[in-house]
Amino acid sequence: MPFATTKDNVRLYFEETGSGTPMLFAHEFSGDNRSWEPQMRYFARSHRCIAYAARGYKPSDVPQDPKAYSYEIWISDALAVLDHLKIEKAHIVGLSMGGYLAVLFGARHPHRALSITAAGVGSGSERAHIDEFRKNAHETADLFEKEGSAAVAKIYGMNAPRIPFLVKDPRGYQEFFDQFASHDPKGSANTLRGYQASRPSIYDFEKEIRGIKVPTLVMVGDEDEPCVEPSIYLKQWINTSGLVVFPKSGHVINIEEPALFNQMLGDFIARVEARSEEHTSELQSHSFISY
What we know:
The chain has 291 residues and is α/β, with parallel strands linked by helices.
C-alpha cells in the first residue's frame, strides 16, 4: 500500500491514477478516499488524480491523542501528500471538512495550488448555530466510542442534508453508508473532537479569505442548509471565485450528483488551465520581444 508520511510521522494512505496535471482530493468527515471514486475515474482520463485517507481513517494511521487532530494539521497533511509525490502545484478539491481545508490551503499556500474547489463547505460556521454544532460533535464522538461506527452511521448518516442522496440513489447511498459504518471509531471520535468541534467558524477567516487570488470554485446543494449561507459569503469574499448551486441536492454532491459535479468541476479546471497557458504564452511572447 502507498503511504505518505507527515511531519509528526503519521502515515497517510493514498490512491493515484491517471497522468497529467495533478488533482488532490480531500474527503468529508463521513467519507474517505473511496468517496472520490466517481471523480477519480472521470478525471484520470486527463489528469493525475490523488485521493488520500485523512489521519484517523484506515488504512491511514489512527493517532490515539485527540491533539493530533486539527484543521491546521489537516492542511499540513495535504502538503505532506504533495511533497511525498514531488508535486509542486495541484488543483485542490475538497468536500465539507475537506472543503474547509481547501479554502484555507488556498489562503495560506497559494503557491502550491493551481485552483481551489470547495464543495459543501461551512457547516457549523453560522454564529447562531456554532455552539450547537460543537456540542453535537462532542456527543457524537462519545457515541462512536460507546456504540461504534455502524450505530453512529444510522443516525449521522440520516441527517437532513443527506436525505436527498437516499431518495435519489438508494444503491449509492447504501455504498456510502457501508463505508461510513466501516470507519475506525477512535479515529472518527478524535476527528470530531480535534477538528470538527475545535475549528473556528469559516467567518473568522474573512480577512485571509478575502486575500485569496487562486481561481476558486464553490459548490453547494440547495438543500444543504448549513452550507448555503457560508458558500454565498465565500463567493462574495473571493474575487476569483464562482458559485454553483445544485438544485434539489444535499451535502455529498460529488456522489449524489456525480455527472453534474464532474461537468462543473471539469469546465472550471479547463478554464483555469486555458488561462494559465495563455499567461505562459504572453510571458514567452514578451520575453521574445524584449530580446
